[in-house]
Amino acid sequence: MPTSDKTTDWKVESLAYPLNASAQRELTGLLRTEWTRTDYDWLEAMSGDYSEKLVIVSFLARRAGEPLATATVHFSRHHPEVAVIGGVLTHREHRDRGLAGQVIESVLAAAKSAGCSICLLGTARSPHNVYRRHGFDWQNGKVMRCALGATDFESRYFAAGQKAVVRAANWGDLPGVTLFAAQPLTTACLDYSHGLFSGRYVPAERCLSNFPVLWYDTAAAGGMFEVLAGPEDGRIFGFGTLTRSSSAARRQTATVDFATHDHYEAQLPALLARLLDGCPTRKIQRVEAMVPVGDEAKLACLRSAGFAPLALLPGILQLNSGPADVHLLRLTL
Q1: What is the pLDDT of residues 28-44, one digit of tens each?
Q2: May I ask the CATH architecture of the domain 3-118?
Q3: End-to-end alpha-carbon separation of the chain, Å?
């Protein structure tokens, strides 16, 4: 139901995806005052392409019927635990009037009502950061975190000993992948090709966009995006990708990478095996991997699977501690 501020006559309206044509035009028109695109395809999302697994709700703050500010929340449809905020925007002619705070509070209330215990978002660091006034604090790099329930949520979410299976990723995994990628994991490299590294070694540059980048890139290349999923739908303990080369001369070559939470390191071989099993149907004959020196569990897993070293690339990766060497390995199938 819309809520009204009697002093300003603002109203906040919720728009649950899929959206009708009128709502799509209105929301897209507001978003385009700032961006030409966001982290994922607007048309696909607003038309409901992701709605079977992922709940997406945009909130619009209006004055005299005109949409002036918006924010969008995402959480798993079947077992919501983690919420992710994106698309926070106030029309440039109506800023500094509290509109952003209204839509942020609406998003947080919706996430908590759905059963989420934590909310994440990505933003640039700023001394006047509006999110800090609404319960958010810095998690890592550009990722912010707001507790909606117990403060020890991550320790329970990633607790050791839970049943875990490897399966194909779906859009309901977006919040879980976002939370996983924000953890200070021992494994330095989560996905070398897509620039994803543990916050223990590199400040996070992305938040909500991590999942779309992996999804769109692997799909466009005819590759694979697999997750290590826990007992609750959307609870993610790790993921792996197989990305075919975009070069016509290297179409039979793909790059593989994979990572798990520290408590689920024993599942690394299962992730790798699932990705390698998909190579024959994709006519992939060579698989390469880039592994920073120090990621010993991943390196051992690759060697056990038959990957052979091609080269040691000195100092090509910049971590918090300084330049790091990277192993290049290859498996011929």
Answers
A1: 998 888 877 778 888 89
A2: 3-Layer(aba) Sandwich (3.40)
A3: 58
